[in-house]
Amino acid sequence: MNLGIIGLPQVGKKTVFQLLTGIAADKAPSKDGIIHGVAQVRDPRIDVLSNMFKPKRTKYAEFEVALPPDIKPDSARSAAWLDPIRRTDAIVHVVRAFEAEHVFHILNDVNPSRDIETVDLEFLFADLAMTELRLERINKEMRIKPSPQKEKEKDVISRCHAQLEAEKPLRNLEFSEEEIKLIRSLQFLTLKPMVTVINVGEDIAAEERKFAELASALQQRGDTVVFLSAAIEQELAEMTEDERADFMAELGLTEPAAHRLSRSACQCLGLINFFTCGPDEVRAWPITNGATAPEAAGKIHSDLERGFIRAETITYEALVAAGSEKAAKEAKLYKLNGKDYVVKDGDVIEIRFNV
């Protein structure tokens, strides 16, 4: 999975990139002006399981992060910043809500609601232009050679066009599986899952109250909302583990906001985690919510899916409550599941297979 971090200039995008990837944006690899990195999904359940199994290595789930050029309103809707975002699976929109006299704002003052609307309109207009081009092409193709498939595509794109003309994002429309397949190649921006990061000042609790109405409106339209203070997060990243714990306790924080952001980014894509545990490795594996046991096995290795026999599973909660793998097996808490088993978030799984 690939997430694009977007936003206006000077809102904290590079800081969010560094918080997620652990690499400064100016030191990360780049291509065609797009900075790339890999972020870990900091699931605290992995830490608990790692303490239980004492493995040689621990591995979190990961996702790719892309940082394209700044969005500059009213500059042409060119491929320079549109195309990289179209290629992502989801979008992390960083919005400035902090005041700082030494940091300029491209629109002259701090107004997160206006900034969100500005970027939304850029995406809406870009998608609207895409529907118009596609409808024009379909109409030409149908004059030469009509087909039921083209008629279906025209119908769904016409529905998208009407939604966008009403200045509403496509993610608020319902599509059938067949319709999604018909429009997938167009990579509509307003159809992508959105995580809105509200970058606030150092009094996070007060800022959350201040922007509660905005956060609620964003959540109602389908966004995942994460509040963080990039200034605080940078301080935390530079501290030792003991210093970090003391500082977070003072601020009433239970974990760095970057950890919550990494999980929110994963969840907005409709992904869940299952775990494999043993003396060599404790590892989280991201899969689509609703995936079956053989599909989960294939995530580990194609041979496991091909030769799948059974999945021995236990919930994370049941394993932790038992205290150890041995105790859980003695209590017969593990269950054998066949090919139709739908994997649940937090399942600890061992695959039985034969190739």
Please describe the topology of this protein.
Elements: E1 2-6, H1 13-21, E2 30-31, E3 34-41, H2 44-53, E4 57-59, E5 61-67, H3 79-86, E6 90-96, H4 112-144, H5 148-165, H6 177-183, E7 194-199, H7 204-210, H8 212-220, E8 224-228, H9 230-237, H10 241-251, H11 257-268, E9 271-277, E10 281-288, H12 293-300, H13 302-306, E11 308-315, H14 316-322, H15 325-330, E12 335-337, E13 347-353
Parallel strand pairs: 1-5, 1-6, 4-10, 6-7, 7-8
Antiparallel strand pairs: 2-3, 3-5, 9-10, 11-12, 11-13
Helix pairs in contact: 4-5
Describe the protein's architecture and organization.
It is a single chain. The chain is an alpha/beta fold and 355 residues long. Helices cover 45% and strands 21% of the residues. It folds into 2 domains: 2-191, Obg-related GTPase Ych/YyaF, coiled-coil domain (DNA polymerase, domain 1); 290-353, Roll (Ubiquitin-like (UB roll)), CATH 3.10.20.30. The chain is built from 15 helices and 13 strands. Helix 4 packs antiparallel against helix 5 (148-165).
